[in-house]
């Protein structure tokens, strides 16, 4: 893992977006599929997600072209952006009548195609390949496939981790980290503090993200005000700080914000 650990806060709802803007949170993940996907002025480190799950669940395929996605990236200039992938959660596979192997193949194929197009642009944003699978072995198989096809980027993310057993997620992260050469950086999509508390998880990652504070607001508050979002965001931020300190890392969350 590179020095430091960065946590990105997702903002799918309008109230979450306002909360992060009011608190001047510098590390933000915005999904291309979000209704309001325009970055706000206080963001210092922007990670753009392709929004694969919601777009495939609703449309069975990406409704916009790769050219449109790249044009969006050129307009907003994130530091990092996810290549378009095909998640492998059982709910989505059932919805679109597909398999893990099919979605892995489609992810690899789409990565290769998008990287070819990316090479012809003036984009300075860094592409992030997304590993897909469900079992630890399947993620490693997909890692080999991306490497063979020349689609394994310097920054790599692990997908389809949300709402899964924390021990399983930690095992997947460790297996992937052990397989990746040290020159590659590693991100985990959609992991909460119950995963980050597991031994060696933070040491294995360079970054992670979550919208858990937003989900907690929807579950616990009658009204989704930005003030309520701030409350849950600050609680989550404190828990992440405690995870980092507990990991033995010499770099605190405060330092990563500089």
TrEMBL record:
InterPro entries: DpdA, TGT-like_sf. Residues 44-218 form the DeoxyPurine in DNA protein A domain. Transmembrane segments: none annotated. This is DeoxyPurine in DNA protein A domain-containing protein.
């Amino acid at each position: 893992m590179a020095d430091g650990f960065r946590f990105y806060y997702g903002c799918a709802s309008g109230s979450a977006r306002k909360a992060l803007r009011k608190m001047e949170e510098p590390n933000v993940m915005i999904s291309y599929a979000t209704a309001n996907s325009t970055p706000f002025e206080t963001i210092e480190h922007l990670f753009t997600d392709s929004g694969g799950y919601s777009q495939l669940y609703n449309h069975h395929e990406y409704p916009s072209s790769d050219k449109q996605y790249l044009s969006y990236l050129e307009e907003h200039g994130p530091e990092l952006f996810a290549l378009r992938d095909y998640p492998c959660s059982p709910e989505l596979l059932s919805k679109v009548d597909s398999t893990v192997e099919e979605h892995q193949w489609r992810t690899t194929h789409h990565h290769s195609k998008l990287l070819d197009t990316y090479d012809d642009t003036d984009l300075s944003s860094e592409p992030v390949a997304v590993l897909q699978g469900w079992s630890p072995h399947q993620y490693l198989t997909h890692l080999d496939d991306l490497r063979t096809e020349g689609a394994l980027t310097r920054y790599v993310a692990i997908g389809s981790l949300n709402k899964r057993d924390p021990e399983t997620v930690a095992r997947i992260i460790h297996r992937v980290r052990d397989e990746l050469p040290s020159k590659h950086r590693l991100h985990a999509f959609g992991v909460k503090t119950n995963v980050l508390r597991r031994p060696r998880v933070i040491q294995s990652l360079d970054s992670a993200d979550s919208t858990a504070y937003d989900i907690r607001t929807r579950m616990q508050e009658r009204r989704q005000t930005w003030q309520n979002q701030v409350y849950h965001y600050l609680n989550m931020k404190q828990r992440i700080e405690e995870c980092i300190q507990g990991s033995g890392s010499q770099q605190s969350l405060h330092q990563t914000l500089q």
